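Notebook, bench 3.
Goal today: get a predicted structure for Glycosyltransferase from Pelagibius litoralis so we can plan the truncation constructs. The sequence was checked against the plasmid map this morning, with no discrepancies at the termini. Length recorded as 473 residues. Pasting the sequence as submitted so the record is complete.
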Amino acid sequence: MKYLFVHQNMPGQYKHICQRLAADKDNTVVFITKREGIELPNIHKVIYKPNREPAESTHRYIREAERGILHGQEVARKALELKSKGFVPDIIIGHPGWGETLYLKDVFPDTPLLNFFEFYYHAVGADVGFDPDVPTTLDTHCRIRTKNIVQFMGLEAADAGMAPTLWQYGQYPEEYRHKISVIHDGIDTAVCKANPDASLEIKNTDGAVTTLRQGEEVITFVVRNLEPYRGFPQFMRAAEQILKRRPQAKIIIVGGDEVSYGRALPNGETYRNKLLQEVDLDLSRVFFLGRVPYSTYLQVIQVSAVHVYLTFPFVLSWSMLESMSSECLVLASATPPVTEVIKDGVNGLLFDFYDHEAIANRVDEVLGHKDRMAAIRKKARATVLQNYDLEKCLKEQLKLIENLVAGKRPVAGSKPGKPSYRAAARPSGSTAASAKTKVAAKSKAKPKAKPKSRNSRATPRKSKTSTGKPARG
């Protein structure tokens, strides 16, 4: 089998599935990406680079759409190069969010396209408008509607899709949901597990080493970047109260100083520095680790007594599920899609996103009733084993791929996010075959002289499209 994966930040959500497929010597796995400096065993990486950035003159509503088109053009060019060398995939698996899969069905019209549908934007009811300090306007609504251009084209082009949670699936237009299966990327529960002997050594700025161990009052907070979308301001305000109430408590904060989502602060200021000026913390008991290797991250969640997770109504982080799998006591914001996974008092504890005092109170509750929390920790892991375990998710993903390669296509099933698959109605002669017939017919016909347009030059420059490749944007 021949597989083509596409994701700008290889491997992205395909970390497990692409390597599982590449482990089979009978498979050929190709990965088109922007990311350099990463190699995976038995996977042929193809790097693409956009020809340019969106033009400054482009309307601000559609700059991201223009960027997506530029990505799509370059990926299509790379796909054509692969095709010219004899590589025609049995299936294409990609993330449509950055435009990379936009034109792959034009290059490989008979190959099924399986897109990863992560998030469809709304001006009401999700992340936009959730922050009371950032009011929305008509301009916001218009911009957000337009922001979905590339996503919508991805829905139209895809033969099928995957979404990691039912809530994320539900954000997509109803008329396209029949295409989408709710299948999580998968959590490696064999790696993300409790370790009663876990410890973590942290080198302080003065050179001294602090060792934290499982069983101590360690509160953890892990995000890609320290920013409002993931509740960093609320956590910092809660941290001030936690440290004052609990003299033995220590806090580990993992995350970079960039902004992944939402608004950046002016003049290059970081949210970390801004919050450090606003709250009174005993910094001898707070450890900012920045971004860390995965092995260090695992140590962090394994020594954790309480893991705090906040998010706007947005994409669910792997870290929440990995922490649950590691039997952390996860204290999380009562926002979707968190509430799809965590039931308060059953497999975790919930609080109102904007109530930092509630965070501090619930940390007290956890650390003051460790025996009562043991059952919640066990149930947290059981939840992940039942619904998000890597092997189960891979099995579902592989079955979906098998259906698509066999010529089956999704139709609405009895449950949301669980489509049925039926053999696709195939017109007489495939799209590719029809295209070949037309090309052959044209080649036999006597070519006609083309009329000159008003803008034609005396000696017209040969267009790149004459090579069969998309003209560069």
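Residues 63-84 form the longest helix (22 residues). The CA atoms of residues 287 and 460 lie 64 Å apart.
Flagging this for group meeting.
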